[in-house]
Amino acid sequence: MASLMSTPLAILRAVSAISVLSLVPTVVLAQDDALADPANEIVLTMTGNIALANLDGRAVFDQAMLDALPATVLETSTVVTDGVKRFDGFLMRDLLDHVGAEGEIVTARALNDYVIDIPMADFERFDVLVATHMDGERLLPSDKGPLWIVYPRDAHTELQDIRYDYRWVWQLVELEVR
């Protein structure tokens, strides 16, 4: 009789342990999925089909938050500068992954109201950089900053086409994922 009574108790304990353990990953994910709040001036806003947000359904970033993304360097020529330039920043795909972006199109907006739709496929096919520096100097709003979408045009002949040149958005301030 004692063994029959301990069997339901053992099952209850096992189920309770499994239930408690199943909550642990949820708590950890909730902490890992949090997007920090900006401490300084917002330099980039992301909207649309994103999984993480930190302000009214938007993902907003100050420069320090963007500087915390994995750093990448790209050397390439541009149609608006002379010679090959060194660009420092982060890959667009890393930023999109960081916020859980899903979609087909990213609409990029600049300070001067320039707007263009960029296929998300570009960011998987090419190492498209969001530049914060050119030749070691931080990009400023007075000269293509604070952010500039830069394609690796010298590494791919197909990128030496005016259709891609239009996607080089300087003074980038907003991205909408659709």
Topology:
Layout lengths: L1 H31 L9 E7 L10 E4 H5 L4 E6 L6 E8 H7 L6 E6 L4 E5 L1 H5 L3 E6 L2 E2 L9 E3 L11 H4 L6 E6 L1
Parallel strand pairs: 1-10
Antiparallel strand pairs: 1-2, 3-4, 4-7, 5-6, 5-10, 7-8, 7-9
Describe this structure in words.
The protein is of the alpha+beta class. The protein folds into two domains: about 1-30; about 40-175, Oxidoreductase, molybdopterin-binding domain (Sulfite Oxidase, Chain A, domain 2, Alpha-Beta Complex). About 30% of the residues lie in helices and about 30% in strands. The chain has five helices and ten strands, in the order αββαββαββαβββαβ. Strands 2-1-10-5-6 form a five-stranded mixed sheet. Strands 3, 4, 7, 8 and 9 form a five-stranded antiparallel sheet that branches. Strand 3 and strand 4 form a beta hairpin. The chain is globular, with a radius of gyration of 23 Å. Mean pLDDT is about 85; it is low at about 1-5 and about 10-30.
Brief description of this entry?
The chain has helices spanning 2-32, 63-67, 92-98, 121-125, 162-165, and strands at residues 42-48, 59-62, 72-77, 84-91, 105-110, 115-119, 129-134, 137-138, 148-150, 172-177.
Q: What descriptors fit this protein?
A:
178 residues, alpha+beta, Sulfite Oxidase, Chain A, domain 2, 2 domains, five-stranded mixed β-sheet, 5 helices, 29% helix, disordered N terminus
Number of strands: 10
Content-based structural category: alpha+beta
Shape: globular
Our measurement of the CA-to-CA distance between the termini, rounded to an integer number of angstroms, reads 64 Å
Helix content: 25-40%
Number of helices, counting only DSSP H or I runs of 4 residues or more = 5
Calculate the mean pLDDT score and round it: 87
Strand line-up across the major sheet: 2-1-10-5-6
Q: Quick one: CATH superfamily of the largest domain?
A: Oxidoreductase, molybdopterin-binding domain
What is the H/E string?
HEEHEEHEEHEEEHE
Described by strand count, sense and barrel closure, the largest sheet is: 5 strands, mixed
